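Section: Multi-chain targets

For targets with more than one molecule, the full set of components is provided together so that the structure can be written out for the assembly as a whole rather than chain by chain. Components appear in the order listed by the source. The example entry contains two components.
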Amino acid sequence: MSSENLIEISSVSRTYVRTDENEVEALKNISLSVRKGEFLSIIGPSGCGKTTLLRLIAGLDRPEAGKITLEGREITAPGPQRGYVFQQGSLFPWLTVEKNIASGLKARGVYQEHKGDVARFIDLIGLNGFEKSYPHQISGGMAQRVAIARALINRPAALLLDEPMGALDAFTRADLQDKLLELWEKNGTTMILVTHDVDEAVYLSDRIVIMTPRPGQISEILDVGLSRPRNRGTEEFMALRGKILQKLHLASSVPQPEYVI
Amino acid sequence: MSQSFSAVKNSGAAPAAGRGRLLERKRSGGRYMGMALLSLVGFAAAEAVSLAVPDAQGVDDTVYRFLLAGLILLYAGIAVFSWFDEKRRARFLSRVSFRFAMGLLLAVWDLLSTKTGILPLPFFPGPSQVTAVFQDDFAFLLSNTFYSLRLFFFGFFSGVVLGVGTGILIGWFAKVNYWVFPALKLTGVIPAVAWMPFALTVFPTSFLAGVFLIAICAWFPVAFMTAQGMASTHKVYFEVAKTLGAKQSYLLFHVALPNAVPQIFTGISTADGLAFTTLVVSEMMGAKGGLGYYINWAKAWSSYYKVYAAIIIMAVLFSLIMKAITLIQKRLLVWQRGIVK
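Its structure, encoded as tokens over all components, is:
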């Protein structure tokens, strides 16, 4: 194992039993190394197991075969070293913005020592003035920023993002993508982003993992290699985007019955 | 293009709308004064009946007349106070018709009873005879009211605390759920007053027996709803908390329990109604004091006007308790405002 790798995923498999009692191989023999400090995206059509893989890294689920390690130690349960941002609606509705962010510290019982971080993170995500608002009073984009801040306040080694921008409109999404890059550059946290948006993956990532469904497998890992800050209009950007789209298209061109896990 | 056009149209319409609103305000000001008067007219009519029509039953009307005068002054005061606030005005207006009808009803009741004797005594006393009790029997009524209040608070409070406690245990520990929940479901449907013979033998005083009965009747709905509220916690909240490094105690007290608070209050409201019933029944059957006891005592002397007086106190007292619970609920559930209608 190379020392610059943060997370090692070796020969991981996971099978689910669907409601109709058929088994689905959500992940089959997946191996992947995540480098320290990199921005990694996992992209693929629905049912390719990308969310399952992210949940395994988080420890919210256990693999049937293979193992996942973080800095050499096997992941067996969820913990604050791996922050997790859900697709939407994960803020505690009974807590204000401020207290939602503070709940990251309170859950670990270290609130008293790091109290000052709450204001700093509110500042960082640009939600000054909304400290006392409740989740239903702010927009979806703001809510996702709060969810990101809540995870980052624990200073995790890696931030796992499960389509955090999937439910947002195009403008809010672009805005949040830039915010995410800013946070990444400031904190140096390793980012693992699950998405089905090719544009998003190319704009944000150092590397892109393309997955294919039935059974869920890694078909290719691409180095993006574009300089930052990136411009969505450049020829290289468009070329890479086209290339990935083509691969995804090929990957899902074999007719298969539709299902969602 | 279309955007700038609509902007121009809007800016043209704004002053006109402002003028319209001003006119409307003037008109509504006149209407408000008229309606405020109407709200007093009912009580004024009742007062006029009491003053002008001669008594057939020879009742002391003083307290009743003072009460009506007090109501007129109170609502006049509220009308003036509400004048300065748009929202308060609207709220005052929405209650005008009811107050008017209430005043008329009092006038008619007075006419049919005290003034003419069409409604026979002792079963249907007039409003002046009933309100006179508040003065004549003041000390005894007050001591019984305090007895009821004390019994209610001891019983209800311990019932709610026990209920939330049991609910947490059932909602969190599978073993407790397995063993205790069926027992809760079985015993919970028994009306609490059925335990009265048992309570009166086991507890040294009738007061403690009453506390026990009220606590039991409050316990069941609160425990049930607490457990249900905790069980309905969305999985994602637990997962979030776990990825933040939460331990079991955090998941219980900072995720499942806050999630259950709305349901807990549903349980408390149900328990509240049941507790009133249990309170009065237990006082009527076993206690040495309280409004239920007062009613029984007055009935034994055929003083039905005292029974009505006690009933009026109950209505006011229980409404105030319910209002207080609603206020606490609103305070604790600020986060829900806007989500739930």
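The two ends of chain A are 33 Å apart (CA to CA).
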